[in-house]
Amino acid sequence: MTGLSPETIYNIDVLNSGGGRIDNDKTFDDKVVYLGRNYEKGDKGFARLMLDKSSYNVDLKTLSYKPDLSNHIPKLSADGGVENGYYLQTKDVYFMSDGSVGILSEKFKPAGQYNAPKTTDLVYINTDKNFKVKDVQVFEKEKSKWVNSDYLFSQYLNEGKDVVFFFRDYQKDQVTKEKKWNLFINTIIDGKFKQEVVPISEKDNYSVTPYVAKEGYILLREYNEKEKFNKVRLERLNY
Q: Considering the entire predicted model, what is its pTM?
């Protein structure tokens, strides 16, 4: 491979979501795209490596927390910290056929001696084919304690050209003051964001768990400990 030094290879690290390694590469007909962490020359952030399968030429681009991302994310430090001890923890990455990459992170605060782990907003970084920041979308949600992530899963749509990802949020009802479980369905189609909120009704002895399904669908498992059988529903997404 040309254009790639051993030092550069050494400085690109794997991505970890906090719960395991992220699937951070994708193969297309004409290229292979890989995303990792970048520590080149002390700059922390991301590195995108794109290999042309016919010529074996390598295109390496980097994206630093500061100043590349701090211009879009308030209070972002050079090491990925945001505010009040939280930092951006990468949860998933999405590769598009033109070489652009979407990076989904969640604001996470690890457990301390006297504090539980916490998580708040999700942050979606949308890059162009040259790995420059196009825009950053912040999905605000309630603070969750004793939870490592409210992000659930994702899937590609329209033969890999678009993507949808899911997260949960326990939002307080303005009338009853009780927290209710909401499922957030977020589609990025042709670079445009759309969000749908689905209230999930749960009662005593009854719970609903979402699972990733075939393209364009979500699987909901309904569990009631008083019933003999569980129920499973396959729901089509609106996009």
A: 0.87
User: Measuring CA to CA, which residue among 61, 82, 65, 76 is closest to residue 12?
Assistant: 61
- Neighbouring CB atoms inside 10 A of 220's CB total 17
The gap between the terminal CA atoms of the chain, to the nearest Å, is 41
Asked whether the predicted pLDDT for residue 10 surpasses 70, the reply is no
Strands 12-13 and 31-38: antiparallel
User: Which amino acid, one-letter code, is at 28?
Assistant: F
pLDDT tens digit string along 15-54? Answer: 777 666 788 899 999 999 999 998 776 779 999 999 999 9
Element (H, E) at 8: helix 6-11
Alpha-carbon span 211 to 234, nearest angstrom: 10
Work out whether strand 31-38 and strand 206-212 pair parallel, antiparallel, or are unpaired. Answer: unpaired
Give which of 86, 58, 56 is closest to 74, Cα–Cα: 86
As a whole number, mean pLDDT of residues 229-236 equals 88
Which residues are registered as beta bridge partners of 59?
50
CB 148 within 8 A of CB 125: no
Three-class secondary structure of residue 175 per DSSP: coil
